[in-house]
Write a structure and sequence with these properties.
Low-confidence stretches: 1-25
CATH superfamily of the largest domain: FAD/NAD(P)-binding domain
Strand order of the largest sheet: 9-19-20-21-18-22
Strand content: 15-25%
CATH topology of the largest domain: FAD/NAD(P)-binding domain
Radius of gyration: 22 Å
CATH class of the largest domain: Alpha Beta
Number of domains: 2
Largest sheet: 6 strands, mixed
Mean pLDDT: 93
CATH architecture of the largest domain: 3-Layer(bba) Sandwich
Distance between the termini: 35 Å
Structural class: alpha/beta
Number of strands: 24
């Protein structure tokens, strides 16, 4: 971190290249592999299997490819990434080359500027900026020290109490991991790769991810309800019929697995069920808000942050202004506050985000506002959250989740992306790695 607003195309049973339906065709009934989910993990796995001459079909419950990497333009008239937006760690990220090869407009976001406001909503002075920088350094040192020492504890237990600490925790916890600091594992933080340098994509990162589908057999609008792996192969029950294969790759979110949306026969091993429970879904909502061209004093691609009270960590909406020159900015709201606010509906989320902008930028902000919306990852039945975040003390769950069940049932996705877990390149990496393991097992 699904859905789109303003368009509901019915594309069930279509084979697609890129995002364009080519022809209606029946599902193959006996491929070597069934891949569940046409996100980055499923499509990278498909491409790897294709290279090895292994037959497969990808079934996707949504009406579009990409999963949580999803760009749409219908709502605001400009491309908006509902899910992942950044090519993080771009010097070691496959989507850097995929985007460049596809002719996408890559905008370097590594050294983006920032606007900072104090508790009263006024532009921060030099002393406030210094305090903010000290808090970033102190929080990062505390988490790194704990992680390096092998401690898998809640970040909230090691974080320093100092001015701007709650502001930093909001970015690093609720708006990065999708959970508050009491749900961030210091070991997981330490295991994570550096996220800079980074790019934004003017046409949308979801549009880059969609290019992976070219030439792959994908059936959209096809929901999987059950997987029988009791025999030498698998029988996958879908809304379009049962597919029998030698093996199955499951790339759905831990939220979907935990909710029992797919029935497994026999039931998954206890260790697998525990791993699913130990990587609950975090939430990051995006709040894209369109304006009439006025820039409100904010520079393109700038971060917009404001100080919050030290007992209110996570209760904020921080922004990226006019990404890639578009006429919208998008707010970020996550963690517990995100779940609570999302329950009130998209209009309430937009009202809150707009209210925060008005407090910072002045009442004239409202007259330039056109429209906005909040992404619905919290309610989306195909995700039930944005991305997985292992509970403190359960860092081993990522590895346990990735373990196959026998030689026929495999798992991949952003939650199993190693040092780049929770990112789209982590999903890509996991899918490719698992496909190689499947090929070995099938041989």
């Amino acid at each position: 971190m699904a859905h789109e607003i303003g368009r509901r195309a019915v594309l069930a049973g279509l084979a697609i290249a890129g995002a364009n339906p080519l022809m209606a065709q029946p599902l193959p009934t006996n491929p070597d592999v069934v891949i569940i989910g046409a996100g980055a993990a499923g499509m990278s796995a498909g491409r790897e299997l294709q290279k090895r001459g292994i037959s497969f079909v990808i079934v996707e419950a949504a009406d579009h490819i990409g999963g949580r990497a999803y760009t749409e333009s219908a709502t605001l008239g400009q491309p908006v990434d509902h899910g992942c937006s950044w090519i993080s760690g771009s010097n070691n990220n496959p989507f850097t080359q995929i985007g460049k090869a596809g002719g996408f407009t890559m905008v370097n976001h590594t050294s983006a500027g920032s606007d900072l406001f104090d508790l009263d909503g006024n532009p921060a002075n030099d002393a406030e900026w210094a305090a903010y920088d000290r808090a970033w350094s102190a929080v990062e040192r505390a988490l790194s020290r704990a992680g390096k020492a092998g401690k898998d504890v809640a970040a909230s237990t090691v974080v320093p109490d100092m001015p701007y600490s709650a502001t930093v925790q909001s970015w690093m916890g609720a708006m990065d991991y999708g959970v508050d600091f009491d749900g961030v594992s210091t070991a997981d933080y330490w295991d994570s790769a550096e996220d800079q340098p980074s790019y934004l994509v003017k046409e949308g990162l979801g549009a880059v991810v969609a290019t992976l589908a070219e030439g792959l057999p994908v059936s959209l609008g096809t929901t999987v309800t059950a997987i029988d792996h009791s025999g030498p192969g698998v029988a996958v029950e879908t809304s379009a019929g049962t597919i029998r294969a030698k093996a199955c790759l499951v790339t759905v979110s831990t939220g979907v697995l935990a909710a029992g949306k797919i029935r497994f026969t026999p039931e998954l091993p206890t260790t697998k069920q525990q791993a699913i429970s130990d990587i609950p879904m975090g939430l990051l909502m995006k709040v894209p808000m369109m304006f009439d061209g006025a820039r409100l004093g904010l520079a393109e691609n700038n971060w917009v942050t404001y100080r919050i009270p030290e007992d209110k960590a996570g209760e904020a909406c921080y922004f990226v202004a006019w990404p890639c020159g578009h006429d919208y900015l998008f707010g970020n709201i996550g963690g517990r506050f995100g779940w609570e606010l999302s329950a009130q509906g998209s209009d309430a989320v937009v009202d809150y985000a707009l209210g925060e902008l008005v407090r910072l930028l002045g009442s004239d902000t409202r007259k330039h506002f056109v429209k906005g919306f909040a992404t619905d990852w919290a309610e989306n039945p195909l995700t039930l959250g944005a991305y997985g975040a292992p509970r403190p003390g359960a860092i081993s769950a990522r590895k346990a989740l990735a373990e196959p069940v026998g030689n026929s049932l495999f798992f991949a996705g952003e939650a199993m992306g190693g040092s780049v877990s929770a990112l789209v390149n982590g999903a890509y990496k996991s899918g490719k790695k698992t496909a190689k393991a499947m090929a070995k097992a099938l041989a």
